[in-house]
Specification:
Layout: H1 19-27, H2 31-35, H3 39-46
Length: about 80
């Protein structure tokens, strides 16, 4: 077994999605629409990285960092 743990610095490709839309998708639990934009999933499917590995299905919403000195998420 190999376990990758930590922040691999992959994100959601969502520059064209306003943060309000992302927030609504999360609240409606429409995670598949967001997972389709997951950079790690995209490179794995293309075979560009980690192509020999599989990832367990992700049943939880994306996580975000807070804006500096704030309680607001940095979407």
């Amino acid at each position: 077994y190999v376990f990758w743990i930590g922040d691999l610095n992959f994100r959601l490709d969502g520059e064209d999605l306003p943060s309000e839309v992302i927030d609504k998708l999360i609240k409606k639990n429409e995670l598949n629409l967001l997972l389709a934009r997951d950079q790690l999933k995209v490179v794995m499917e293309k075979g560009d990285a980690f192509s020999e590995f599989t990832e367990h299905p992700i049943p939880f919403p994306p996580t975000y960092k807070f804006e500096f000195h704030s309680h607001a998420y940095d979407l």
